[in-house]
Amino acid sequence: MKPSLTVGSTHRFTYRVPENKTVPHLFPEARDFQVMPHVFATGYMVGLMEWACIDMIRPHLEDGEGTLGTLIDVDHTAATPPGLTINVDVECTEVKGKLLRFNVKAHDGVDVIGKGRHERYAVMWDKFTARVSEKAAKAGVAA
What we know:
The chain has helices spanning about 30-35, 40-55, 125-140; strands at about 10-15, 65-75, 85-95, 100-105, 110-125. It is an alpha+beta fold. This is Fluoroacetyl-CoA-specific thioesterase-like domain-containing protein. InterPro entries: FlK (IPR025540), FlK-like_dom (IPR054485), HotDog_dom_sf (IPR029069).
C-alpha cells in the first residue's frame, strides 16, 4: 500500500440499479428468491458497497496488489426498485498496515437504503493465488 490513503478520506460511487440485480436474480435456482419482489437484493448491495471501497482504494495500491473483503457489517433498511440510482458514500476510518476500515452508506435518491462498516485487507495477488491453488489441490478440485 502506498501511504496516500489516509483516515478521513472520502469517496462517492454511483450505480444505477438494473432489473438483473433484483432479488429473483440473486440465486435463480432458489425458488424462495423467485417469488420475492423485484427490488435491489441485499447481496448485491453488499457487493456494491465492496465495489465502492475497492474503487476508492485502487489509486493507493502498488503494482500487483489488491484487496480482499474480510468483514461486512451493514443493515439494509429500504427497498430500491430497478431504475433508481444509488450513491454509496465511503469514509476511510482506519489504515493499519494492510488492514483498511471504512464506514459505508448507500442512498437511492429517496431513502438511505443501507449503512455500516466494511473491512478490507491488502494482498499481493500472486501470493494469494498461490495459496488458493494449494488449498484447491489439497481438496482435489481445480482452482
